[in-house]
Amino acid sequence: MPRTSVPPPTGTPAVTSANGTDSALTHGLKQRHLSMIALGGVIGAGLFVGSGAGIAAAGPSIVIAYACSGLLVMLVMRMLGEMSAANPASGSFSVHAERAIGPWAGFTAGWAFWVLLCVAVGLEGIGAAKIVTGWLPGTPEWAWVALFMVVFLGTNLASVTKFGEFEFWFAALKVVAITLFLVLGVLAVLGVLPDTDAPGTANLSGAGGFMPNGSEGLVIGLLASVFAYGGLETVTIAAAESENPVRGVAKAVRTAMWRIALFYVGSMAVIVTLVPWDDPKVVSVGPFYAALDHLGISGAAEIMNVVILVALLSAMNANIYGASRMACSLVARGQGPMRLGRVSSGVPRRAVLVSSVFGFLCVLLSYWRPDDVFPWLLNMTGAVILVVWIFIAVSQLILRARLEREEPQKLVVRMWLFPVLTVVALVAMAGIFFLMLRQPGTRDQLLATGALTAVLIVIGALRQRRSAGAGA
Question: Residue 352 is inside which H or E element, if any?
Fold first, then answer.
C-alpha cells in the first residue's frame, strides 16, 4: 500500500524521509538518554500505586498475573523493536501500521495514542498536585498542575536534548528507588535484615491460600497488570532522535526483558511475601508503603510520596514528548492539520503546545464536569493501549515477510519463533478483550475505547479514499 504524504507548512522541513526517519527532527538524544528512558519507562506510577488493587483482588497470585502480562508485553516490544530497528521513525507503530495495512491504520493508531497520552498527562498532573497539596495544604491543585505543565512545556520546547536530560535524571531516581526497595525486600525475605524475621511462606499460603479469590480474582489482577505496563512504547518514538537510532532501539528492546522481570514481577513477589495480601494498607496507601512500613522504616509514607511524585512528573514529561512527536509524524504523513507539524530548531513546538493544552483541558474537565465528561474521557482511553498492541502485531506479521523478501539486511532485531509467537500474542490480546467484556469494571472502558477506535477508523478510511481519489 503506497504511503500518502503532503508538503509540510511553509518554512518547515517536517517530512518523513524514505527510510522512515523524520528528517526535520534532530538527533540530540545520546545513548545514555535512550537507555534511561527505556529503563524509566518501565517504572511508572501505576506500579507504585495501581498495583495495590491487583494484589487485593488476586492475592499472592498477582505474581502470576504480572508474569503473564509481562510475557505479552515482551512479545509486543520485540515485535515493535524489530520494525523500529528496521525503520526508525518518531511515529513508531503508527508509521509501521501505515506501511503494513494502509493510511487509515496509521491514522487510527496514531491519533488514538495521542489522545491517550494527552489524557494521561492531565491525570499525572492531578496526581502530582495532590501529593504537593498534601505537603502544602491550602494551595490550589490546579495551580500546581499549571506549574508542572509550564515546566515541562519549557523542557520540551527547548530541545530534545533538554527533554533527554530531564528524563534521564527522573528515570535515574526511579531506578535507584526501586533497586533499593528490592535490595531491602530480598534481605528481609532472607531474614538477614536487622530486627526482621524471615516470613517464609506464611503470607503466600495463609489467609485463603495462593489464590484466595480463585480464578476470578486472578483475572482482575491480570487486567490490572496489563495496563500497568503502558509507556514502554515511548522508547521507540525517542529512538528516531537518538545518535544511532538502529543500535539504540535494538539495545533498548533487547534489555527490556530482564527489566520487566526484575522491576514488576520481582517487586510483586517481594511485597506479597513480606505483607499479608489482605492488609488494608496495601490498597489505602499503596503496597510499597505497606512493605516499607512493615520493615519498620521510619518516614515510609513520605519516602513513597517523593518516589511517586518523581514517577508522575517523569511520566508527564515523557508523555508530552511522545504526544508531540506522534502528532508531528502524523502531520508529516498528511494525517493531520498542517500547521500542527511546524518544526523549529528541530522541535515540533506547535505540537508540543497543543498536546500540553489538551492535557490541561483534561485537568479542567476534572473540576468542571467530574461526574460525566471526565469519566467518559477516562473510559474512552482505557483500552487504547490494547488497540495499539493489536496494530503492532498485525503490522509485524505483514512487514516481516516484506522485509525478508526485499531488505533482509534490516532485520537487526528479529521476533522470536515468527510467526508463531506473533499469532500467540494476538490470541492473548483477544482473550484480554473477552475478559474485559466479562468484568463490569472494565466493560465500559472497552466499549468506550471501541467507539473511539471506530470513529477514527471511519475518519481515516474516508481520508484515505479522498486522497486516493485526488491522486487518480
Answer: helix 349-368
Question: What does the alpha-carbon distance between residue 45 and residue 66 come to, in Å, rounded to a whole number?
Answer: 16
Residues 6 or more apart whose CB falls under 8 angstroms from that of 406 comprise none
Cα dihedral 392, 394, 398, 404 sign: positive
SS3 22: strand
pLDDT tens for 76-109 read 999 999 999 899 888 899 999 999 999 999 999 9
The C-alpha atoms of residue 259 and residue 398 are separated, in whole angstroms, by 28
The per-residue pLDDT for range 31-49, each reduced to its tens digit, is 788 777 776 666 776 777 7
Lowest mean pLDDT: which of 121-135, 252-266, 314-328?
A: 252-266
Alpha-carbon span 85 to 442, nearest angstrom: 34
CA 393 to mean position of chain CA atoms: 17
Crossing angle of the two packed helices 51-58 and 287-294, in degrees rounded to 10: 80
- Residues 155-190: b if buried by 16+ CB within 10 A, e if exposed: bbbbebbebbbbbbebbbbbbebbeebbebbeebbe
Give every CB contact of residue 17 below 8 A, 6+ residues apart in sequence. 23
Contacts of 311 (CB under 8 A, 6+ apart): 43, 44, 45, 47, 48, 174
Residue among 220, 207, 195 at smallest CA distance from 275: 207
> E-strand spans in 172-301?
none
Q: What distance in Å separates the CA atoms of residue 230 and residue 232, rounded to the nearest whole number? A: 6
Classify domain 31-467 by CATH number.
1.20.1740.10
CA distance 237 to 465: 28
CA dihedral 335, 338, 341, 345 (to 10 degrees): 150
**Are 403 and 410 within 8 A, CB to CB?**
yes
Instruction: Look up residue 309 and give its amino acid.
Output: L
Sort residue 247 into left (φ over 0), alpha (ψ -120 to 50) or beta.
alpha
Q: What is the DSSP string of 62-93?
A: HHHHHHHHHHHHHHHHHHHHHHHHHS--TTTH
Mean pLDDT in residue range 61-83: 92
Per the CB < 8 A criterion, the answer to whether 185 and 268 are in contact is: no
Integer Rg of the chain from CA: 22
Give the domain ranges of the chain.
31-467
Helix and strand totals (H; E) in the chain: 21, 0
Quote the cell numbers at residue 233: 512504547
